[in-house]
Amino acid sequence: MKLYGYFRSSAAFRVRIALNLKGISVDHAFRHLRKGEQSTPDYARLNPQKLVPALQLDNGEVLTQSLAIVEYLNEIAPEPPLLPADPVGRARARALALIPACEIHPIQNLRVLGYVREKYGQDEAGVAAWARHWIGTGFEAYESSVAGHSATGMFSHGDRPTLADIALVPQVFNAARFQVDMTRYPTIRRIHEACMKLRAFDLAQPSKQPDAEP
Amino acid sequence: MKLYGYFRSSAAFRVRIALNLKGISVDHAFRHLRKGEQSTPDYARLNPQKLVPALQLDNGEVLTQSLAIVEYLNEIAPEPPLLPADPVGRARARALALIPACEIHPIQNLRVLGYVREKYGQDEAGVAAWARHWIGTGFEAYESSVAGHSATGMFSHGDRPTLADIALVPQVFNAARFQVDMTRYPTIRRIHEACMKLRAFDLAQPSKQPDAEP
């Protein structure tokens, strides 16, 4: 399998964590998002959505959208499970994952920030304020969903990392880039720290990728 | 079970479709998003994310995030299946669903439009231009992912409605509200029309809800 990614892409980061947790090694290809390499004709043929990540299977088939890829990996390689065993637990882990994946990341990704910069004449401080606002809104939702909830454990759901943590950790990295005050989200911080002690999360972080830039 | 929704919420619309396809009837409660009824203390206790939909189970447990709720319904009531039988097909249906759910809807939902209006001084035309831009970007991605793909059938994946169609149809309704030119997306239009011939989709549409407004 071959993963098309970009070191700083949250969505590619999620897939890297899942691959590491599953112990699946893949070839890596990189598309430099700031240089627009996700929109070249050859890549658009591979992924018409012009986004990373894309996972190309050995038969040529291409999977897109990080959460769908992680669910696929969890189906073809069930151990260790990335979702709880019970339907209500699975619904909770998926719902938590969808907070960063739907409510935060798409609103503060490169192309939306570019639009805010160009169309609304925002400078870097204005763009960062936009990003911080939506990260804050989403993190408040996440924090209040995990803090004090009986199903929260060492990780977002129980004592093993799940899809929820896989979606959360890359968003915490983004928050750091935008200097979000994380003291407001003590449970997120605690879970993030627990995750980063795991080799699967640590090795997936942007600065440890071959295409990383300072 | 009790579904907290709002007639015009795309995310609640998705859950209504899934419930109808499964033949599951639930009690309905409404939170008027334009009046901010999703942020009242009683509702925030129920769903700290302050979003609709939320599905309260008979044991009091509350499920959030529409795609997680639909996956839950598909697990507790497997027939008719809302996902294909094979992992690659499931990955494709989930990835298609995530285009409206991640790449479009969160960027053009009420609270983001409100921010664009207030912070960037956009009038209704400006706000609509923002919404149309992101709906267009996402629909281009969806259209090019389904048009001519061998797995596309009468619906987005094969000849039965899946999670993909459940996410797509409410977004087409939103597109109509913002007067998006749908002639550019012939496959989406065809799939949408096929869906709307089904009672499950038809009865879930905003105008047929008890809380509908003109």
Polypeptide structure, described:
- The structure is a homodimer of 214-residue chains.
- By secondary structure, chain A is α+β, with helices and mostly antiparallel strands.
- Chain A has 2 domains: 79 residues, 3-Layer(aba) Sandwich (Glutaredoxin); 115 residues, Up-down Bundle (Glutathione S-transferase Yfyf (Class Pi), Chain A, domain 2), CATH 1.20.1050.10.
- The first copy, chain A, is built from 9 helices and 4 strands; from the N terminus they run βαβαββααααααα.
- In chain A, α4 runs antiparallel to α6.
- The relative contact order of chain A is 0.15.
- The model of chain A has no long low-confidence stretch (mean pLDDT 96).
- The interface between A and B is large, with 46 and 46 residues.
Write the layout of secondary structure elements.
The structure is a homodimer of 214-residue chains.
Chain A: E1 2-5, H1 10-22, E2 27-30, H2 41-46, E3 54-56, E4 62-64, H3 66-76, H4 87-104, H5 110-119, H6 124-146, H7 163-177, H8 186-196, H9 199-202
Parallel strand pairs in A: 1-2
Antiparallel strand pairs in A: 1-3, 3-4
